[in-house]
Amino acid sequence: MNTTSRRRAVTAAAVLSAAALVAAGCSSSSDGATTEQGFPETITLAAIPAENSTDLKASYDPVITRLEKETGAKVEFIQASDYAGVVEGLIAGNVDIAFFGPFAYVVAGINGAEMTPLGAVVQDEGGKPGYQSYGIARSDNASVNGLADYAGKNVCFVDPSSTSGFLYPTAGLIEDNVIASGSEADISAAMTPIYAGGHDASVLAVNAGDCDAGFAFDTMVDRTMIDNGEIAPGELKTVWKSDTIAGSLFAANDDLGTDAIAKLQDVFSEGMNSDAFVADGICAEECRITDEDAWGVVPAQDSDYDGVRNVCEITASEKCKG
């Protein structure tokens, strides 16, 4: 079966497991038919929902409309149950375009997915893709002023699978000689780790004094929880900032071919943003895309994610192995 013949029809917005994505059958494009623009007649776009997402497809509708207009293809949206399903779908040729967080993108490559970045999302026009992990403590806690002070403390992490709530913080703790490695045993030997389950929960636990210190991503600390009235300005201090973590991104299955991928890179870098959507009548007024509520997409390349790969090497995290 050739590259195009591995495209298959799927049910839009269906929640699919890895097994379902791998086992999906051939589509109406199995005869090798392509659109005038050189794309398969059906293109699949896969993503997983954020924890509180209630209508994932709606947040991708502008992207889908743009893709259909520029490729001449029918875009089928796949709401996968986990990143493993998306990765296996890419490897099996059953996913054409996927939206990944930075850590998931790196792990997908480690596990054999052959793909090319199409662009990374930015929250605001003119912004740069990426964010930071913050180490935080209460402003009135004089005993915590840097990562070295986390030793022996109750420390809130987000979740062992979180890029900015665990992976990057673990690397920072190793570099500051607080822990010997990213293993649970070494972390627990140096401090009492508490897994809050969410960035907001980590912030609230630190603010309440349930954790002496903790970690969360930058805008959760600087903006979101202050805007929501959950913490007051000045209640928390930032005692550590990570290197910039590359932003979430769209990536294309290399099976699409270099010509098609080059066209998609142009589409994503030039036409996947709120202003372009409004100008072309895709949105009547400002619209945000993906469940990260992004303004749009800017160019990205694989080397942008070397920082995540470096952190995987520093921590030797089992999570980096998929």
Total helices: the number is 11
Order of helices and strands: EHEHEHEHEEEHHEHEHEEHHEH
Query: How much helical structure, as a percent, in the residues?
Result: 25-40%
- Classification by helices and strands: alpha/beta
Radius of gyration (CA) equals: 21 Å
Outline type = globular
Work out the number of β strands: 12
Question: Order of strands across the widest beta sheet?
Answer: 1-3-2-4-11-5-12
- The separation of the N and C termini measures 28 Å
Strand content: 15-25%
Structure characterization notes:
By secondary structure, the chain is an alpha/beta fold. Strands 1-3-2-4-11-5-12 form a seven-stranded mixed beta sheet, sandwiched between helices. A five-stranded mixed beta sheet has the order 8-7-9-6-10, sandwiched between helices. Helix 5 (163-175) packs across helix 11 (306-315). Helix 2 links the parallel strand 2 (42-47) and strand 3. The longest helix is centred in the N-terminal third of the chain and has 16 residues, at 56-71. Helices cover 34% and strands 19% of the residues.
